[in-house]
């Protein structure tokens, strides 16, 4: 069996709300010998760059402008974005995201990243929607184990959406969920267990969906479960 030598971090789509606690745990694992790779979606990077360009050069149609003629502003903003996409080197990623959805595109991009990595050499640590993308490609031969912080089972304002959970029973790699006791996207371990493969493990943490500002004891407990997930397949180099 190959050993895990690299941890790939697949963060949440709202990068402004990334967890400092998760980042600290990842850095602890790095200090113990794992290489780190932070996955960045080319589509999302391109999309954010276009948003910044529109806000800077056309502030009248910026999403922060709450003035009159909102429907017209949205139409102009969409036309500008489509024009920018047409000339962007990542336009094929945009096209895939438009046709299949952002999560599907991130799963595709993540798979392309892993294609060049050795079989069974990768441990994934995800947060929020990053967990959906990662678990959708769990069968990829490079993946040895998956840890999901704050898996978004159901949006609190929406009815159940199949793309979030229908694939989970088929995940065939060691899987750990670290879920907040106050997470509005799912916090009942009995209910969550029914949506997961039988081998999946759940660790409940005293936090919300952001998985941040953890007490020291909770931080250490979460870190121990990550080590336990990767132990047995992962060799230490430090």
TrEMBL record:
**Any idea where the KANL3/Tex30 alpha/beta hydrolase-like domain is?**
125-221
Would you say which domain of life the source belongs to? Bacteria
GO MF assignments: hydrolase activity
Quote the InterPro entries the UniProt record gives: AB_hydrolase_fold (IPR029058), KANL3/Tex30_Abhydrolase (IPR046879)
UniProt keyword terms in alphabetical order: Hydrolase
**UniProt keyword Hydrolase present:** yes
Name of the molecule in the record:
Alpha/beta family hydrolase
| Species whose genome carries this gene | Novosphingobium clariflavum
């Amino acid at each position: 069996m190959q050993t895990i030598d690299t941890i790939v971090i697949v963060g949440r789509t709202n990068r402004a709300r990334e967890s400092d606690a998760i980042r600290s745990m990842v850095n602890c694992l790095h200090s113990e010998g794992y290489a780190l790779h932070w996955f960045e979606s080319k589509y999302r990077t391109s999309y954010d760059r276009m948003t910044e360009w529109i806000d800077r050069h056309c502030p009248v149609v910026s999403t922060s402008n709450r003035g009159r003629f909102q429907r017209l502003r949205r139409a102009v903003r969409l036309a500008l974005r489509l024009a920018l996409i047409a000339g962007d080197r990542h336009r094929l990623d945009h096209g895939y995201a438009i046709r299949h959805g952002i999560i599907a595109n991130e799963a595709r991009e993540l798979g392309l990243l892993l294609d060049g990595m050795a079989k069974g050499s990768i441990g994934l640590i995800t947060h929020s929607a990053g967990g959906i993308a990662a678990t959708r490609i769990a069968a990829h031969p490079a993946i040895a184990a998956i840890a999901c912080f704050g898996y978004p089972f159901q949006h609190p304002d929406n009815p159940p959406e199949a793309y979030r959970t229908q694939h989970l029973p088929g995940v065939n790699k060691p899987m750990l969920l670290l879920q907040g006791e106050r997470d509005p996207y799912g916090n009942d371990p009995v209910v969550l267990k029914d949506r997961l493969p039988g081998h999946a493990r759940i660790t409940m943490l005293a936090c919300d969906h952001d998985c941040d500002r953890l007490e020291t004891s909770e931080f250490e407990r979460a870190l121990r479960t990550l080590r336990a997930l990767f132990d047995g397949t992962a060799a230490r180099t430090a």
